[in-house]
């Protein structure tokens, strides 16, 4: 069955791999991007997800071309790393607004059609950092932890209407965002991972595709770690 799938931040990294995986499964995939040239093969909507008006316009375009969103993947995220005493109000607020508040915004809008249809999949991309914490990432960890509480609350709100809400929690993943880490920092992070390697974006995409599938219809309120074992016990 072909579905209308919406992935925020689907133009690169993990989001792009999720978009490819969903499209390969036959879904109609829409992605957001903020700048540059978006990848071909998807309905690419220029949208700053921190702007409610742009989000509304994006949904109207997606609904006109693909129909109501049946699978939402809230993936878009940014980092503004700094130790707490050096972290500005702006850097804290920007990360919360992009990584958490925008997820609320796109989920709220998607839920309209899902409630009418009495079915839907909400999937939020969190991080192992949400449960473990990380020095210099208090803003990022707070936002990613917030997604877990948010998703589980929606699982309780929407469960009786056939809508599932789940979280995928990646660990260190080989993307542009992590490529800027120093060799020493990367080695230190890898040393904490039982499997000893970083995830591939495709690994995260496979977990998302599973949670969006019929096979996962009885899974809701879950946090699925794709982290090589770094977060076990959390």
Automatic annotation (TrEMBL):
The keyword Oxidoreductase applies. The keyword Oxidoreductase applies. This is 3-oxoacyl-ACP reductase. Residues 3-173 form the Ketoreductase domain. Belongs to the short-chain dehydrogenases/reductases (SDR) family. GO terms for biological process: fatty acid elongation. Keywords: Oxidoreductase. The lineage of its organism: Bacteria, Bacillati, Actinomycetota, Actinomycetes, Kitasatosporales. Pfam families: adh_short_C2. GO terms for molecular function: oxidoreductase activity, acting on the CH-OH group of donors, NAD or NADP as acceptor. Gene3D superfamilies: NAD(P)-binding Rossmann-like Domain.
């Amino acid at each position: 069955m072909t579905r209308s799938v919406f992935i925020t931040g689907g133009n690169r990294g993990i989001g792009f791999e999720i978009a490819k995986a969903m499209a390969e499964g036959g879904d109609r995939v829409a992605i957001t991007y903020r700048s540059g040239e978006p990848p071909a093969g998807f309905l690419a909507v220029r949208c700053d997800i921190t702007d409610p008006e742009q989000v509304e316009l994006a949904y109207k375009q997606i609904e006109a071309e693909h129909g109501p969103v049946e699978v939402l993947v809230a993936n878009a995220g940014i980092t503004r790393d700094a130790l707490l005493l050096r972290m500005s109000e702006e850097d804290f607020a920007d990360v919360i607004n992009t990584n958490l508040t925008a997820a609320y915004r796109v989920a709220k809008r998607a839920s309209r059609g899902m409630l009418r249809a009495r079915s839907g999949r909400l999937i939020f991309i969190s991080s192992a950092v949400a449960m473990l914490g990380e020095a210099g990432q208090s803003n990022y960890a707070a936002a990613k932890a917030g997604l877990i509480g948010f998703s589980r609350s929606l699982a309780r709100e929407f469960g009786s209407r056939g809508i599932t809400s789940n979280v995928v929690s990646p660990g260190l993943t080989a993307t542009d965002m992590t490529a800027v880490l120093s060799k020493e920092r990367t080695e230190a992070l890898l040393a904490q991972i039982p499997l000893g390697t970083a995830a591939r974006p495709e690994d995260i995409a496979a977990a998302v595709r599973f949670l969006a599938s019929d096979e996962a219809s009885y899974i809701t309120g879950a946090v699925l770690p794709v982290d090589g074992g770094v977060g076990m016990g959390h």
